[in-house]
Amino acid sequence: ERGHGPYQPHEPGYGLDQPGYSPYEDQIPDPQARMLAIKNAKAYLLKTSTRSGLNLYDHFANVLTKILDEQPTNTVDIIEDISKDVKWAQFRKKMDTLRDEHLILPTFEAAEKCKALFVKEGGEEEREEVEEEMGQPSLPNVMETAFYFEQAGIGLSKDESYYILLSLKNLINVQPIQTCRFWGKILGLEMNYIIAEVQLREGAEEEETGEEGEETTAEGEKEMGEAEEEDEEKEKEAGPPKSTYKPPPEIPKEANGTGTNKYVYFVCNEPGKPWVKLPPVTPAQIVCARKIKKFFTGRLDAPIVSFPPFPGNEANYLRAQIARISAGTHVSPTGFYQFANEDEEEEEEGGDTYEENPEFEPPPVAEMVESLTTWAHHVKSILKQGRCVWINPSQKSEENEEEEDEEEEDKEEEGEEQQEERGPPLLTLISEDEGMKDIPAWTAQASTNLIPQYSVAILQSNRWPGAYAFASGRKFENIYFGWGHKYSPESHTPALPLPVQAEFPSGPGITETVDPTVEEEMAFKAAQEEALAEAEEEEGEDDEGEDD
Amino acid sequence: AGGGAGLSPERRAALGASLPLVQRDYRFERVWFWGCIQGVRGAYYIAQGLGPDRAAPRSRLYSLNCLDWSLLTPATKEMLALAEQVKGRFQGDPSFEYNLAEINAEAAARLIEGGKEPVIKEEARLIATIEQIDRAVGIVPRGAFVKTPLGSVHENRHFEGLSLVEAKKLSSYFHFTEPVNLKNKTLLEKADLDPSTDFLDSLEHDIPRGSWSIQLEKGGSVVVLRSLLWLGLTFYHVPRTKQFGYVYFGTGEKNLDLPFML
């Protein structure tokens, strides 16, 4: 565009606006006019926008600078986006410093915690003493286990496994622990759980049972007090009818160190966070956990809203699921463990203790994969009652009070049978696990077909998706990664609510009857008068009185 | 990897070798590993390939050992309808046939009338399941893809990742399928949207509410979203970078108990 208009004949440059005579070709630019044009254009570009306070000139300069700095490919396609970004960048600067400070907190906190894991504990003298007294508590070699599981394609990233190893080390230093094992990881909605299976040293356990014993005696006293009140009510006849509902006797939980409570579990949300101990599990919780299916949120104190109402909060539900998973899926090569006293094997009491078999010869990996008879459960399965060892609840209540004895015996005679439940004995082979529909309970694979001499036998459970076990020679391990639910081929149907209970037992006192009609009433009155007259006549014969 | 499922080093190495070959053979622009569906007797490894248009129907390949890949035909509506009837785990054998007569007598009758056998092969079920999973829970962060005025969808080369604040919100993630709910939004909401980036459904309105679990791992350096409807779908994104992706490791079954579990 040429800023100067058509030349008049008397002006210099006349004829130059014809093509061929333009100033460019003569290479004698007309500096003044051109400079004026440039100034006009620049002034236009520098015109500040009334809305945003930017001007086009600066904006173009910034955009071009950015493009020349970054040199992205196919710039012409994304030119508009670049332009927008440059505009946004103007605003970002002001808020930048503030935002940086906010952002620092969560990321760096977590990093600090992880770093703390790496710091060696001060006071090496203390550590040496502890080790001499108690013997070294065994820190599980999480990295080795992780390596084997990685061959199967299962596991966490190496970083995370290492963090877990370090936090387990912390746990061992803090708590009096005899043996420790990384049990697995359960995913939750907001946070996940990392779980360690632990056996406490004997002294520590006794303290706890002492406390719990006191609690149960206090409850027992309460029950006595209530029973006395109930007796008084029985004597009153004019009270509201007493409810005939007796809640089923509460099944006592198993003592620490046996059955479902054989191990103590510690959880933490992330490696670096403090470990929390999970309370021991009661049979009622296990029975209820079998009926509900809920996600874990990640907070141990979250309530579980479900039907049937779960007795406890998320910590109890987590513990119950851990118990079920352990009972269902912890396996070891057959023969690795054997019963302590094979002669005195009693099904009710014994079978809980096993020890390593020193003469165990590991079968080759191929065999372990092909047949499931080479694997056996080493955790007792949980009966329907919710315990590993069946207990007759009516026996227990005899100890508490004597008055209820008669009622209980009556009930037993009436035929409330509580059959003794027997589960499969301790070291059953997993080939006897039933599958669901067409799906076998376990899937066995070798980790690699290409290199048989180093491959590892891997077991996946189909009943509890996420439970894995591996075996390679004498080494074996179980682990769980998942959401914590059992697999069921049908959809989960929650229990239906119970039928509405009758308020009062029906009887003549409260049932409605049809009001008598007038004729019936008259007849009744006549009959009464007759009876009265007869009675009076009899009296009249004796007394010679006047009667009608 | 935080979910506990992963690939063994052998498989990873095999994938690294075989996926580029797939790209060469099928002339894809991009190939990536979609995930793994575990059957009772074996596992299927799935890969996806794309041509230049990102929103075009994707070609899927499956393999039993991460080395030999076979192309899967695109899913048809019949396949999808039939596959929804079949429940239970995958068997691990692509030629396994599910007997439809046991499952749904009507569908079997229809097939018989049509002159076909009342069975559905596991391969078809696999195709349908992958398609369902992608449609239901295949997600991308907001801003990662732009729609040009011509209608084709490209990756946004200017996408620099979500900020930490945005990454925690469900509304910053979109389903990468045809939008269903977009037109139902009120005019007020529409005014805030930017048509070049907001042309997909966001996750906020997923039914049932709460079917996604968002977690920040490693103190916020990675955002992980896990779907609760299809257990095993994990989406990750490193905020402030261009890295994101999703992968499925699971049994290939929809979690129908979800409303009870929340």
TrEMBL record, chain A:
<feature type="region of interest" description="Disordered">
    <location>
        <begin position="202"/>
        <end position="257"/>
    </location>
</feature>
<dbReference type="Pfam" id="PF04712">
    <property type="entry name" value="Radial_spoke"/>
</dbReference>
<dbReference type="GO" id="GO:0001534">
    <property type="term" value="C:radial spoke"/>
</dbReference>
<dbReference type="GO" id="GO:0060294">
    <property type="term" value="P:cilium movement involved in cell motility"/>
</dbReference>
<feature type="region of interest" description="Disordered">
    <location>
        <begin position="393"/>
        <end position="424"/>
    </location>
</feature>
<feature type="compositionally biased region" description="Acidic residues">
    <location>
        <begin position="204"/>
        <end position="218"/>
    </location>
</feature>
<dbReference type="GO" id="GO:0035082">
    <property type="term" value="P:axoneme assembly"/>
</dbReference>
<keyword id="KW-0963">Cytoplasm</keyword>
<dbReference type="InterPro" id="IPR006802">
    <property type="entry name" value="Radial_spoke"/>
</dbReference>
<feature type="compositionally biased region" description="Acidic residues">
    <location>
        <begin position="342"/>
        <end position="359"/>
    </location>
</feature>
<keyword id="KW-0206">Cytoskeleton</keyword>
<feature type="region of interest" description="Disordered">
    <location>
        <begin position="342"/>
        <end position="362"/>
    </location>
</feature>
<feature type="region of interest" description="Disordered">
    <location>
        <begin position="1"/>
        <end position="25"/>
    </location>
</feature>
<keyword id="KW-0969">Cilium</keyword>
<feature type="compositionally biased region" description="Acidic residues">
    <location>
        <begin position="531"/>
        <end position="548"/>
    </location>
</feature>
<keyword id="KW-0966">Cell projection</keyword>
<feature type="compositionally biased region" description="Acidic residues">
    <location>
        <begin position="399"/>
        <end position="419"/>
    </location>
</feature>
<protein>
    <submittedName>
        <fullName>RSH4A protein</fullName>
    </submittedName>
</protein>
<feature type="region of interest" description="Disordered">
    <location>
        <begin position="528"/>
        <end position="548"/>
    </location>
</feature>
Automatic annotation (TrEMBL), chain B:
<dbReference type="GO" id="GO:0060294">
    <property type="term" value="P:cilium movement involved in cell motility"/>
</dbReference>
<keyword id="KW-0966">Cell projection</keyword>
<dbReference type="GO" id="GO:0035082">
    <property type="term" value="P:axoneme assembly"/>
</dbReference>
<dbReference type="GO" id="GO:0044458">
    <property type="term" value="P:motile cilium assembly"/>
</dbReference>
<comment type="similarity">
    <text>Belongs to the flagellar radial spoke RSP9 family.</text>
</comment>
<dbReference type="InterPro" id="IPR055316">
    <property type="entry name" value="RSP9"/>
</dbReference>
<dbReference type="GO" id="GO:0060091">
    <property type="term" value="C:kinocilium"/>
</dbReference>
<keyword id="KW-0969">Cilium</keyword>
<dbReference type="GO" id="GO:0005930">
    <property type="term" value="C:axoneme"/>
</dbReference>
<keyword id="KW-0963">Cytoplasm</keyword>
<protein>
    <recommendedName>
        <fullName>Radial spoke head protein 9 homolog</fullName>
    </recommendedName>
</protein>
<keyword id="KW-0970">Cilium biogenesis/degradation</keyword>
<keyword id="KW-0282">Flagellum</keyword>
<keyword id="KW-0206">Cytoskeleton</keyword>
